[in-house]
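Wed. Picked up where I left off yesterday with Putative anthranilate phosphoribosyltransferase. The coffee machine is broken again, so keeping this brief.
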Amino acid sequence: MDITRIVKEIGRGKNHARDLDEPTAYQLYQAMLNDQLDPLVLGAVLIALRIKGESEEEMRGFYQALQEKLPRLQPPKNRPIPVVIPSYNGARRQGNLTPLLALLLEKTGFPVFVHGISNDPTRITSEAVFAELGILPAGSPAEAQSLLDQGKVAFMTIDGWCPALAGQLALRWQLGLRNSAHTLAKLATPFAPAEGLRISAVSHPEYIPKVAAFFHQSDAPALLLNGCEGEVYANPQRGPALYSVDGKHPAPKLLTERQPEASVSLPLSKSAAETARWISAVLAGEIPVPQPLRLQVACCLMLSGQCADVDEGLARLQACGY
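Structure written out below (tokens, as returned):
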């Protein structure tokens, strides 16, 4: 791999840089994950990609290199398809409800694998909320597999699941900018493409078709939505439109329309302790589950083949007590 040529190709600025083909992108990201680039060159690559923007071919090559690096898990036998939840943004303004989504899915019978960052000085992470709920990160893939097999939420920090990717993510605090790893982390899965249902959030609705194309080309089922502060749970006050995508249909399919703004009970503060207290009250039936999250779980039931449509999924949730 001629790294000097690669930097020259991608580093010519937004209007003159050239995209890498998929095999070259694969080789490049493989070298990055294996810590084979000089730090100066690595910084140049990351900044160049940030300015240029990653092409679809580049993202496919990067993703292939990452998936080969990730420890794999097996879907539990005689259980619904596992749901994979990335959590890399955390909460800045309101309580982080990603743990609530995971626990609602667990309560419905899904195996649930959550992966995310362990620290962000500017936001409340899912790890912090899970800790307040008494759920600690799995220390190894084997422990995560055991939790899934027992029907419990398995949460792993990216530091424990894939240290190489964690290193890429941590460069944000040195460079002051996010990099390709932040996009890749949200697409990562410990399962074979068709063996897990991924929930994926985008920052703007116009990105839905682009992300849908990625999952379609990967032959992977996914539930797509405009995320809440970058997290994948449906905003409880302004429920987003929910879309499905799979390997058979290239265009995203609208499952539920955007919900009208509603006044709902929310945690009194964004703190991990208060958010965990509120989540516990919801799970105990003391506070109603916000309708956008009910719709999100109902969509997962439908996409996993456990019900025919969203309405049937909602009826099943009502029978479960929420």
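Quick read: The radius of gyration is 19 Å.
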